[in-house]
Amino acid sequence: MFKFSTLLGLVALVPAFTLAVGEWGQCGGINYTGSTTCDAGLVCNVINDYYHQCLRGGTVAPPTSSSSSSGPSVPPTSTSTSSGPQPTPDAGNPYIGYDIYLSPYYADEVAAAVSAISNPALAAKAASVANIPTFIWFDVVAKVPTLGTYLADALSIQQSTGRNQLVQIVVYDLPDRDCAALASNGEFSIANNGLANYKNYVDQIVAQIARTCCPLVTSAITDLACLSEYPQIRVVAVVEPDSLANMVTNLNVAKCAGAQAAYTEGVTYALQKLNTVGVYSYVDAGHAGWLGWPANLGPAAQLFANLYTNAGSPSFFRGLATNVANYNLLNAPSPDPVTSPNANYDEIHYINALAPELSSRGFPAHFIVDQGRSAVQGIRGAWGDWCNVDNAGFGTRPTTSTGSSLIDAIVWVKPGGESDGTSDTSAVRYDGHCGLASAKKPAPEAGTWFQAYFEMLVANAVPAL
Ligand code: BGC
């Protein structure tokens, strides 16, 4: 920061020489009087009405002086998917060249957990988990306003470190959510205006990302910088864990059959809207023990392909997220006995089997894989055990060294230590899976902190923390 302000001071002192501004320096904005020329190879990007910045790879010139009279503008309440400028994605793996922003929400949870651990060695290991990037879940609409704070924070980190930042979010608030289970039933119901509420939730996420000064841009600018307030902060989304997998295999469950239209419309809406602000999206695709059974691969691929096509093949749509909040290894040295007789006994076998089915249907076969809690195998009574599986450990760290050209990144989606569901049999959201012998108990409500589970994940981590 010191370096930048020194440079800006120089710029303000000698504007007559039109001293060019270096990378990250200010080059425009309301009340700014310094140079608006960037060094060679840099472009002056509109960050907001008050701050334009020299960046590599940007393409948007700042608006002219007409912008200075209008003052701060407000986020749009809705965005269009069919008209107006559309951003253009970078080709290839969106994770390459970016540091993943660390979730402050999770860091707070971990800090509180650490303070409750008396064993110093375990506490030190536990503290290190806060430095491992984990997705930020927007599981209720009330959390959405924090997204803007995180993006602003990521931008400030990017400016002070010079390292590109990528914010990972989970979009998770469909009406009649978790239709085949009980533990994660959500806040919206289809019978009570749920789909409209969901669209409003998506709009609010988009508004957090959307640029506040869009009305000031009148020319045909088609760069992401005019659509996002944080054009150089990359956002990656996992969209609606479990939802479409339930549409493939669980339509025999009345709640899932009743949710089919709303899930399809809701997910389509989310993908289209996220696309307008340049969010790289991966739709959830269950895991090897769900859609990875040979009989499910074709129907799953067909459903995903239909969804993608009907959404208008959104340009930022990147592919599928697998094993979210589950326990499978990406590369198992040998099949866990519970996976028998499925030849696709781990995530790489599942992905390798699904990819050609997707590609032949015109669907982008790229993947991210959750390995956050996958360290220990042989701990489930059945492959379908998904709730707070006992003896699990933190798994392979997030990386783009995945060993497969199909896999963009190994990620941690489920924040380890947050419960999968309550073991209180009298709770409204009690699901029998959370009472199984394989489930650690007593467990609190889904999404809330489960201290004993977190400490177990820390102790059993592979590689060790
Ligand atoms: C819960 C959510 C939570 C998420 C991540 C889900 O099982 O239903 O409330 O945000 O897990 O922990």
Automatic annotation (TrEMBL):
<protein>
    <recommendedName>
        <fullName>Glucanase</fullName>
        <ecNumber>3.2.1.-</ecNumber>
    </recommendedName>
</protein>
<keyword id="KW-0624">Polysaccharide degradation</keyword>
<keyword id="KW-0732">Signal</keyword>
<keyword id="KW-0119">Carbohydrate metabolism</keyword>
<keyword id="KW-0378">Hydrolase</keyword>
<dbReference type="Pfam" id="PF00734">
    <property type="entry name" value="CBM_1"/>
</dbReference>
<dbReference type="InterPro" id="IPR001524">
    <property type="entry name" value="Glyco_hydro_6_CS"/>
</dbReference>
<feature type="binding site">
    <location>
        <position position="386"/>
    </location>
    <ligand>
        <name>substrate</name>
    </ligand>
</feature>
<feature type="binding site">
    <location>
        <position position="418"/>
    </location>
    <ligand>
        <name>substrate</name>
    </ligand>
</feature>
<feature type="binding site">
    <location>
        <position position="326"/>
    </location>
    <ligand>
        <name>substrate</name>
    </ligand>
</feature>
<dbReference type="InterPro" id="IPR035971">
    <property type="entry name" value="CBD_sf"/>
</dbReference>
<keyword id="KW-0326">Glycosidase</keyword>
<dbReference type="GO" id="GO:0030248">
    <property type="term" value="F:cellulose binding"/>
</dbReference>
<dbReference type="GO" id="GO:0004553">
    <property type="term" value="F:hydrolase activity, hydrolyzing O-glycosyl compounds"/>
</dbReference>
<feature type="binding site">
    <location>
        <position position="290"/>
    </location>
    <ligand>
        <name>substrate</name>
    </ligand>
</feature>
<feature type="domain" description="CBM1">
    <location>
        <begin position="19"/>
        <end position="55"/>
    </location>
</feature>
<dbReference type="InterPro" id="IPR036434">
    <property type="entry name" value="Beta_cellobiohydrolase_sf"/>
</dbReference>
<dbReference type="InterPro" id="IPR000254">
    <property type="entry name" value="CBD"/>
</dbReference>
<feature type="signal peptide">
    <location>
        <begin position="1"/>
        <end position="22"/>
    </location>
</feature>
<dbReference type="GO" id="GO:0005576">
    <property type="term" value="C:extracellular region"/>
</dbReference>
<dbReference type="InterPro" id="IPR016288">
    <property type="entry name" value="Beta_cellobiohydrolase"/>
</dbReference>
<feature type="active site" description="Proton donor">
    <location>
        <position position="242"/>
    </location>
</feature>
<keyword id="KW-0136">Cellulose degradation</keyword>
<feature type="binding site">
    <location>
        <position position="287"/>
    </location>
    <ligand>
        <name>substrate</name>
    </ligand>
</feature>
<feature type="binding site">
    <location>
        <position position="137"/>
    </location>
    <ligand>
        <name>substrate</name>
    </ligand>
</feature>
<feature type="compositionally biased region" description="Low complexity">
    <location>
        <begin position="62"/>
        <end position="85"/>
    </location>
</feature>
<comment type="similarity">
    <text>Belongs to the glycosyl hydrolase family 6.</text>
</comment>
<feature type="region of interest" description="Disordered">
    <location>
        <begin position="62"/>
        <end position="89"/>
    </location>
</feature>
<feature type="active site" description="Proton acceptor">
    <location>
        <position position="420"/>
    </location>
</feature>
<dbReference type="Pfam" id="PF01341">
    <property type="entry name" value="Glyco_hydro_6"/>
</dbReference>
<dbReference type="GO" id="GO:0030245">
    <property type="term" value="P:cellulose catabolic process"/>
</dbReference>
<feature type="binding site">
    <location>
        <position position="414"/>
    </location>
    <ligand>
        <name>substrate</name>
    </ligand>
</feature>
<feature type="active site">
    <location>
        <position position="178"/>
    </location>
</feature>
<feature type="binding site">
    <location>
        <position position="139"/>
    </location>
    <ligand>
        <name>substrate</name>
    </ligand>
</feature>
<keyword id="KW-1015">Disulfide bond</keyword>
